[in-house]
Amino acid sequence: MLMLVTELWILQGLGLLTLSAILPSFSISESISPQMQLVFFFFSLYLVAIGQGGHKPCVQAFGADQFDEQHPEEFKARSSFFNWWYFSMCSGMLLTQWILNYIQDNLSWALGFGIPCIAMIIALVVFLLGTRTYRYTIQSDEKSPFMRIGHVFVAAIRNRRTTLSAVAVDQEAHGTLPSSEF
């Protein structure tokens, strides 16, 4: 679900970026101040940045969930997945930057922003078509991530006046800190 939301953020941002590149060519743009066009452009960029910030970690975790850790073959394939995923991300970014910079410099900015928008629409459709075949791992025995973060803050507030040596002795007693004695 989170991956779908981040993809939609990116898609909205790319669509607005394309629109911001098209706006100056319309006669309507003369009624819009250049400052508003600039605000619209940067708002679109921020949407893409926020979407990308949530999308990349989701893709990695979602890809890892597609492999069963209990099967040795799938465990090896999981490691290979991360190698190929990282290689694909880096080579895709290199190729995309190279091609899109050429398109934006020599053809048009609207086409340079429109191509990634269309590619994101295709990626979203492919993702949605495969939703019935994906594996979803739900760890019901674990607490919510928000609850775990909340427990960290509660423990930090409780221990705010405790000295480091007292915390270390307490952690060593619970087995969370290795003993310094040999």
Automatic annotation (TrEMBL):
Entries under PANTHER family matching the protein: OLIGOPEPTIDE TRANSPORTER-RELATED (PTHR11654)
Subcellular location field: Membrane
Gene3D superfamilies, A to Z: MFS general substrate transporter like domains
Membrane topology: Multi-pass membrane protein
Assigned protein family: Belongs to the major facilitator superfamily. Proton-dependent oligopeptide transporter (POT/PTR) (TC 2.A.17) family.
GO MF assignments: transmembrane transporter activity
Protein name: Protein NRT1/ PTR FAMILY 5.10
Keywords: Membrane, Transmembrane, Transmembrane helix
Stretches that traverse the bilayer: 37-54, 84-103, 109-130
Gene Ontology annotations for the cellular component aspect, listed alphabetically: membrane
InterPro entries: MFS_trans_sf, POT_fam
One Pfam short name: PTR2
